[in-house]
Amino acid sequence: MGYLRVKQPKISDVIMQQMEAMILEGALKPGQRLPPERELALRFEVSRPSVREAVQKMVAKGLLSSRQGGGTYVTERLGESLSDPLLDLFKHHPEAQYDLLEFRHALEGVSAYYAAMRSTAADKREIRKCYEDLQRYHDEKAFDKEVMADVDFHLAIAASTHNMVLLHMMRALFTLLRHHIGDNLKNIYPKDNWRSSIHSQHGVLLEAIENGEPEKARKAAHDHLMFVEEALLEQGRENTRLERSLRRSSLTDVDES
């Protein structure tokens, strides 16, 4: 009977596998700067040349990149291959925002459920931090920062599910999601009561996750998105009424002249 020779893995390959796992699990995020080579060598308890070789392999794979001025970063646009021209069409199609809301119902309902079930104490601290950032920008009425904080809040929930596919699906749709949330807020936020309601819904979702209540968290996510959809529909109806009123006024002005 023949035996296959057991091949000792290269240290650089082991380091690379660990760093790839950190990217998949969300410990290393797109755009995040890696610690210096010396620090990585200390953390992995290996030599600096082994770390250097692992990093070079990951750069060749497109997972890491070097920037002018120094430093190695997780590739900023990691996962954005899903953001192809078709998704650009979604941004401008009038019905796409409602289809995307339906998609978010499915994705974020599951995300909230598993976040409440699986999130660690560290996960909950991160979600709360994102919520507090959102609260601050909400109070300051810093619109662009609030949009980013809103997205970060939902992505932190996705990360706390410890489901790598779910997390990276959310991240891959980050650009579209940011555009979608931004458009929603522009349409909804002129009305302070709607804006306050949406922020309160985020608080209910946070509380359900922190208390470890999966069904309540899923319901909070669905209720939030249902409210957004109803608010958008109502805003659309108001815009239609305003356009009709303006048309009537213009006709009246023509008749009087």
TrEMBL record:
Keywords: DNA-binding, Pyruvate, Repressor, Transcription, Transcription regulation. One of its GO terms (molecular function) is DNA binding. InterPro entries: GntR_C, TF_FadR/GntR_C, Tscrpt_reg_HTH_GntR, WH-like_DNA-bd_sf, WH_DNA-bd_sf. The keyword Lyase does not apply. It comes from the Bacteria. Pfam families: FCD (PF07729), GntR (PF00392). Residues 9-77 form the HTH gntR-type domain. Transcriptional repressor for the pyruvate dehydrogenase complex genes aceEF and lpd. NCBIfam families: PRK09464.1 (NF007001). This is Pyruvate dehydrogenase complex repressor. It comes from Nitrincola nitratireducens. The lineage of its organism: Bacteria, Pseudomonadati, Pseudomonadota, Gammaproteobacteria, Oceanospirillales. The gene is pdhR_1.
